[in-house]
Design brief:
Blueprint lengths: L7 H22 L13 E5 L2 E4 H19 L5 H28 L5 H10 L3 H4 L5 E2 L2 E2 L1 H8 L2 H6 L1 H23 L6 H12 L1 E9 L5 H4 L3 H10 L9 E10 L4 H19 L4 H8 L3 H4 L4 E5 L6 H8 L10 E3 L2 E11 L2 E9 L5 H18 L5 H11 L4 E6 L4 E3 L2 E3 L2 H5 L12 E3 L2 E11 L5 H34 L2 H7 L5 E2 L5 H8 L4 H6 L7 E6 L4 E10 L3 H34 L2 E3 L1 H13 L1
Antiparallel strand pairs: 1-2, 1-19, 3-4, 5-16, 5-18, 6-11, 6-15, 7-10, 8-9, 9-10, 12-13, 14-15, 17-18
Helix pairs in contact: 1-2, 2-3, 4-8, 9-23, 11-19, 16-17, 19-20
Amino acid sequence: MLQTMRSSAKFVFWILAVAFIGGFLLFQTSGLIGSTPVTNSTAVATVNGRDILYLDWQRRSQQAIQQTQQQSGRSLTQDEFRRLENQTFDDMISEVLLEQEYKKRGIVVSDEELRDYARYAPPPWIRNAPDLLTDGRFDPVKYQRLLSSSQARQSGLLVALESYYRGEVPKEKLFEQVTSGIYVTDEDLWRSWRDANDSASISFVAFHPTANAADSNVADSDLRKYYDAHKTEFDRPGRAILSVLYIPRVVTGTDSAATREHAVKLRAEITGGAKFEDVAKRESADTSSAVQGGDLGKGAKGRFVPDFEKAANALKPGEISQPVLTQFGYHIIRLDSRSGDTLSLHHILLRIAPNDSSSARIDREADRLAKLAAGSDQPGKFTDAAKTLGLTPFTVHASENQTALYNGREVPSVSAWAFGGARVGETSDLFDGEDGYYLARLDSLTEGGKTFDAVESSVKARVAAERAVERVVPAAQSLAAAAKSTSLEAAATKANLKVETTGMANRTAAGRAFGSLGEAVGAAFVAPLNEVTGPIRQMDAAFVTRTDARKPSDKEAFEKQKNDLRTRRIQQLRQQRLQMYVEDLRRAATIKDRRKELSAQLRRQSAS
């Protein structure tokens, strides 16, 4: 469960404490220093000649992981670890690139600017602090009072604000320079409005060819030439195929009833005189709030899941709820105070789990599975373990940096493991998920599309598809010529082809009828009425079209919304330009990513 800070100053102090303690413990207990390829000076990446240290990356990743775990109140999967590590890595790359750009452009920040920003432009984590809200809205007076207090200095709030703005203000200055001069004319707005609101009825004949053997017979040199011209279109994540064994934790109605009965007993204990906070520390499964005696702090409407919030809103201050069931388990809630739609709450969470005998049986089976095959580099041990325990493996197709799915359900940790240096044929350690235990064997691994070899089959399929379209263009030309002298319907009937129609539709809906939103739809919306046009080629098909009716956009409605449209459009263009700018910085930079290299070295050393 998400825990909100009790006060903004304490929240800042907690972040700083987690950052320091997490980094210090990682540094001291990881065993990295002096005993592995990783030392104080080991770089996990180099950006235009500047190193990003491995230990700095690990420290910041660990901080992000700890914060996320505390907010979610549960342990994270390896997939979630990997996402946070990747996000931290990308953030650190961007920070270096931006700092290099500040220096190049001469962007500096004065102490006076920092003070002004701190006073009048508080960051989001300050604006959302419950103790700085009045009637659910940020209160500048409370914030100014906090800034001038001794608590702000003693807790580290002022230091945290200075650090925040030293990073954000130069970024804001740079982005202002990058996006200055953006303006959208009335003509551009009207064109966008028409693109979204014009409608037309289009009749068309589609030629969707299937590539044959001749289309697929492409010389290697032609494939490489095509790849070089379309390289960014083939930049895709790595792929893996895994066999997975699963031992589920089966929760029954009896387990749910037993958990509720336990919650009823705890409530009786509290109403009988026990301190709510003591019971929460002893019993609550929400680890992030349990250490605070179940304190969830203050929060406005919409903070909690609906069933929890409905029960909390029904309470009077000081009242303790009956057990409340949500997707997290059973809760006992105490309402401490109410101010408008802002509630101050304590709670105890009891998760529903298999009973002790079921859990023991499941754990024993998982332990046997781990002993039989976990960590093995012999593929046969995985198969033998499945037979011994009567488990049926299932196949999972995983993409790099994405949680693996099987029949729409997440299979935790196996994707992160597969792309974390595992070798084909290797079996993972046993993964403990919330719904059961998982063991995976890596059956195949394809590196991401950074090289021609990695995507050769996809390049070949693309080239073959485009050749197939070229092959049907003469037939489309013949149809168009015949339709101009008779009609589209008559020519299609004679050629044994089908005429389809979109009905009155905007461009997006027409694209669905065509099978893709591309050149053919765009051409049909500007073609003269009742005139056959084509063939129009796209990557996947060729089309012959006729526009039967057209309804223009409402100009009066446009004029009423024009100013709002301009504001939103300028904001979109600013975001697009900033994104393109950062992407251009990355493309122009010389970046050496050593994560996989270091991971492989550490794995080899741990295995020796």
